[in-house]
Amino acid sequence: MTTQRSIPFGKPWITDDERKAVTAVLQGPVLTHGPEGKAFEEEFGAFIGRGAHCVSLSSCMAALHLAYLQLGVGPGDEVIVPAQTHVATVHAVEWVGAKPIFVDCDPATGNLTAERIEAALTPKTKALSVVHLLGIPCGMTEIMALAERRGLKVVEDCAVALGSRYRRQHVGLFGDAGCFSFYPVKHITTGEGGMLVTRRKDVAAGVDKLRAFGVDRTHGERSVPGLYDVPTLGLNYRMSELQAALGRQQIARIEENLERRRDNFYRLKSHLGKQEGVLVLDAVEESQDNSHYCFSAVLLGELGKQRNEIVARLQQRGVGTSVYYPQPVPRMTYYRDKYGYRAEDFPNAARISDQSIALPVGPHLTPADMDYIAESFVQATQATKEMQ
């Protein structure tokens, strides 16, 4: 009989190096506007790739919000957004006064495609919100060709896509801005935090000002301490030195983190990839490098109707799970009430939301853990089938 395990869906990988780095900041005189933030931006940019200008922020949603502000998206504009995403993707559009236009996703990857985007364009479309779902890169060559042809801004939501590449280029460097999340269960964490990445120096410079009240001079640029001007409206979306110090240690281990996730993902896929009634969301082209945020198993047919029962069985065996994402965003109360909802417009997003189970593959897990998860999943689905 297999020994019962306790496997959390997500667990931050924190070592003594992180603890020492944070303690060192606490022992110094600077907790914000300091060298750790600048160093983290540089080191993050070095990983993302040549041409990346990085601005550290308080969250990924802050990055999304500032991206739209800096790109001039606002009232009267429409922004194409995926129905299948975290609500923050769409909230950022709402907060600048633009209108989100929801588009259904590809059933195999959960991502938008150029064809689906083009069918939703109107004369009011100003920008595209491109989400690399679960770390699976979108087909950016076709999407960018469409955007350039139609004169559209492109904001990439890379919240769970650190390490994802399309045709060898890291996601976030295709559009006008890429936005990353450092929430505790993401690829790296700063507790809370985010990063805006862009190839455009003007966008990075503008966001740098917007994140700190719109002031015109940093602390280091002030000839007289405390004197500055505010030529533009701004917000307080800064990252602290504590968070940046933590992030620097995390990004230093990102390659090992990604390798562990990749190994865990494919070990699980080797067990479950051919199971009847299960579709695994994954990259479908050799040009797509998945960063393997989690393992999303979409339950098909009658099995899909029993998703919550299967989750309960997995919980009984100590296997932590999640759902990405709980509902298509246009079905959530705020957006449904404001814009209306027609189920027939988003069948793929609904199937993934209502019939999928996200299983963990994080670096906190061992090969033996993955075998146990696979065994538990097979047992749970089999027991559910027998009850039908």
Outline the structure in words.
Helices cover 40% and strands 14% of the residues. It has helices at residues 16-26, 35-48, 60-70, 87-95, 114-120, 140-150, 201-210, 241-252, 254-272, 301-304, 307-316, 333-339, 347-355, 367-387, and strands spanning 53-57, 78-82, 99-103, 125-131, 153-157, 165-166, 169-170, 177-181, 194-198, 278-280, 288-289, 295-299, 356-359. Strand 2, helix 4 and strand 3 form a beta-alpha-beta unit. The longest helix is centred in the C-terminal third of the chain and has 21 residues, at 367-387. The radius of gyration is 21 Å and the shape is globular. The mean pLDDT is 96.
Which features would summarize this protein structure in a list?
14 helices; alpha/beta; 14% strand; three-stranded antiparallel β-sheet; 388 residues
Give the number of DSSP strands. Answer: 13
Shape: globular
Q: What fraction of residues sit in β-strands?
A: 5-15%
Q: Provide the helix percentage.
A: 25-40%
How would a crystallographer describe the biggest sheet?
7 strands, mixed
Instruction: Give the N-terminus to C-terminus distance in angstroms.
Output: 26 Å
Quick summary:
This protein is of the alpha/beta class. It is 40% helix and 14% strand. Helix 4 links the parallel strand 2 and strand 3 (99-103).
Write the layout of secondary structure elements.
Blueprint lengths: L15 H11 L8 H14 L4 E5 L2 H11 L7 E5 L4 H9 L3 E5 L10 H7 L4 E7 L8 H11 L2 E5 L7 E2 L2 E2 L6 E5 L12 E5 L2 H10 L30 H12 L1 H19 L5 E3 L7 E2 L5 E5 L1 H4 L2 H10 L16 H7 L7 H9 E4 L7 H21 L1
Parallel strand pairs: 2-3, 2-4, 4-5, 5-8
Antiparallel strand pairs: 1-9, 6-7, 6-11, 8-9, 10-12, 12-13
Helix pairs in contact: 1-8, 2-8, 3-4, 3-7, 9-14, 11-14
